[in-house]
Fold this protein.
Amino acid sequence: MAGAATAMHWAADHAGRFESNVATREPAWVRWLILAVSLTFFGVFLLLPLVAVFAEALRKGWTTYLTALAEPDALSAVRLTLITAAIAVPLNLVFGVAAAWAIAKFDFRGRHLLITLIDLPFSVSPVISGLIYVLLFGAGGWFGPWLAQHDIKIIFAVPGIVLATVFVTFPFVARELIPLMEAQGREEEEAALVLGASGWQTFWRVTLPNIKWGLLYGVILCNARAMGEFGAVSVVSGHVRGQTNTMPLHVEILYNEYNFAAAFAVASLLALLALATLIIKSWVESRAGQEQQQEGAS
Amino acid sequence: MAATRTFRVLPGFGLSLGYTLAYLSLIVLIPLAAVFLKTASLGLAEFWDVVSAPRVVASYKLSFGASLLAAAINAVFGLMLAWALVRYSFPGKRIVDALIDLPFALPTAVAGIALTALYAKNGWLGQYLEPLGIKVAFGPPGVLVALVFIGLPFVVRTVQPVLEDLDLEPEEAAASLGAHRWQTFRLVVLPVLLPALLTGFALALARAVGEYGSVIFIAGNIPMVSEITPLLIITKLEQYDYTGATAIAVVMLLLSFILLAIINGLQAWTARRTGREA
């Protein structure tokens, strides 16, 4: 569902075309007004919160900042966040490729229903994404007694955190690849097979090079969400410092203890991750756009 | 179709579809079904008592009301931003364009504490707003601010591509026929943009209704006043009231599914109106 808003998108800047054309140009004062209002809105609602994270993090100086990051609990939160993403992202990557292959390369009944079901996690509140696993694996849940008997902990432990993260990042890669692979059709793969390539050879040498930018794009967004998820993880984590705290949860604990400098220090790492995500995303979009243009020209 | 059914040249259909369905069922469908099955164990009267308790109803009003208002604010300013990005040249445009997606990339907890720091009494914005009698943080306006933040990219990113693909000719024709620029916008451009704008509005609304992380820090979470519905689910869970939490979750899920159906309809309409694939 959020696909419309996360789809890879690239377009050359044609603003000059509109500005030089009398018929499609607003009076100067209207142009200035729209620019002033929209950019002020952008500044207040998007830019200022971002700047505030870094300003608050460094308010008490670099020493406090670095001490907060070197704290054992902070480091263990970083480690758990990395582990969670390292499991969740590859799982959803493999799923995304498999789902896109089935949906884009074959016709079968229920294709559209399947696409809608894959999108489902985007429309579920993060809190509910955590709740469903508590209902299954929690102490009072369906499998709770069995898990307790066998001394397996899922809820309030790392497996629950991973599960909730897999759920909330479920559609990212599939959502990106399905329209891309649908647009590319089947001819190239069919040609490769007719020429004697095996199924895997066809996938690695024909399909993968064609979808690499879309794949990378989906993985970056999936990773950002996996590392930053808060609501779903908060429900299943149990908030044990040094054990079941991811970075966003650690930010919350520090903040609620009024340890603002440390909270914002950890938050600044997540903000840097967000900025890196946006930079790579823009780069991928422009690379994919350039390749499209070259193909169009040749 | 049965008559034209051909031999499948490409391999891997059974494997990829089988894996997709198995993984989808295990991660998404079975766990989601658990919510409905758990609620089924509750009698209808009990269910109704839980989901219509005054504190819960107050949270629906806040969650839905603030989400509607935030989506409306985003529809207006998001359209202006998309317009500026497509139609005007200004310095720093590429950076602004890239940063529009910040709410997608920034963890919600980080957004939450940053907004709280900005709008608190001694914050960069709060220190000017509070003397004017505008108290944003730790009340319903704070909820609104957080929901505006997380919803903005949905509107910009649905409207922007449609705006980019717009042909110049209809606007030129309108101008040569003597239409004012405003008339051209209202009668020529806006009808084409409208489905995309409504889709963006609905996407922002759907996201805002379920939002948790960015809201709870700035909301103050006062029962009956600034407590959002997702927080009530958490509160009930913390009291080990699983059935209560699940009942409220069912109400929210049903609302999400209705919104999802509306969004799918709107996207199909956008595709027809603009000739683009949704």
Notes: Chain B touches chain A through 110 residues (CB under 8 Å). The longest helix of chain B spans residues 54-87. The mean pLDDT of chain B is 91. The radius of gyration of chain B is 23 Å.
